[in-house]
């Protein structure tokens, strides 16, 4: 283990000067005002990047005497590598923009500056407040690894275990945060050379102060002459996107950002502090999913948000709440159980290998509801199966056979991985007997492996793609479900899927909203309007187009004697949306008394069913559902 420097007083931490001379001067001036000595100031790397003044910024940092960890930009420049090594996806907007600013830095830096960069440590170890911390640029082993607040706790746990310390201070991602992961600290001070994508011109640094029973961590905003920095970038002929970012507080691309950080774009960060006590218990590093205590930043909900979605009949300000009647039961969904072979980061119903809140339905239970459809002549044409992963249910093939033999169309939502492939012969036999009435919808969250695995976990993309190719080659009726969680332009996202499908011979039209369904995301922290009876005409929406106007879902709760019917595939756990145990009992209207009703269905225009009319929502900038101004239209 590296020797550690012990600190008894406040340490100032900052990241990413990014060749922004004005911000670097302001930061060092602030350290002097706070009377923090240079050896108590630590930079997490990337002294050189987007800005206009790489030479002057390097010289200023070197003269200052602060401690610096080598970032990926220093590593590339020292080694004479032709790109910044930031970890951007090839061909992405960030990758294209980086070529210009990296070439600018490469032209101007001399050999002495590169030698200094080569001599920087990849890691510093410090002791403060009785705890040992490792300071790195990105990850413990990989210098350009992006680790955000929303990065899975098990991934942070692995990095902490590799570091072998009580906590870790990182940089690279550019957005500050502080978390306690299994009792251990993960801290990112942010960057000073660019705003934090929060819609303000400020950048960020932090102070770590040892106190009697722990460490106080302060996140502080840095004000500096951003206008001069932006002007210098334009004078140097650097990409306009980053110059504009200094003035708007919004990055020119979200390529590297996870969904949660994209959803929080433009929400101003507020300076604050957190405390890490000595009493915090350090969880064993082998724990699979350590608890996370997110200390900063906090985005408190407005007081008005706390009173929404409480009364089934009225909105928070007293307007009659919108309701949707059952036009006809066109699709009946069966949740075969919430157990799944994956634990996705943003699973709508929290399926996982351990979540059995909804237990396996049996073949006999499914048959009972099919009998009710036929007995009451409900006119249902489609039976959908979802989970969890439906093919983990041991009676799945039998249930499919029953559905298809009765003349229904069957739609199965699957990740197309090993659980499905184990039933390959049986599925081929069903397709042979029933043809196109057996349809499969494969969850491929993004056309790129990186984005898909960001959501579903490592080594999940190739098995899903292989399963999708197998289905296509064997003539199954196919559709694909993706996500719009990365803020990409919707047409560009569909183009990406189209290229993938063409490359692998997958006969799915990526520009057909019923064949490639791109679902809107549901940020639990976002402000969501309530839907009133007056919203239908204002928004130009028809309640008969909503998912609950034509479908219901059957679930079986753990410990329940029999299944029950709920209003929506997205709300299997909400007692207010449990409508009865029979389809007849569940035929009443549904109050739109949940944030998902507004965000996902009414405003997002999404539907889980193949035949519903709401499969292709109107889309505005960056693939977000286009709606009138909520302040004018909604409560």
TrEMBL record:
SUPFAM superfamilies: Metallo-dependent phosphatases, Radical SAM enzymes. Residues 20-200 form the Calcineurin-like phosphoesterase domain. InterPro entries: Aldolase_TIM, Calcineurin-like_PHP_lpxH, Metallo-depent_PP-like, Radical_SAM_PqqE_MftC-like, rSAM, rSAM_sf. Pfam families: Metallophos_2 (PF12850), Radical_SAM (PF04055). Residues 335-498 form the Radical SAM core domain. GO terms for molecular function: catalytic activity; iron-sulfur cluster binding; metal ion binding. Its cofactor is [4Fe-4S] cluster. Belongs to the metallophosphoesterase superfamily. YfcE family. This is Radical SAM domain protein. The lineage of its organism: Bacteria, Pseudomonadati, Pseudomonadota, Alphaproteobacteria, Hyphomicrobiales.
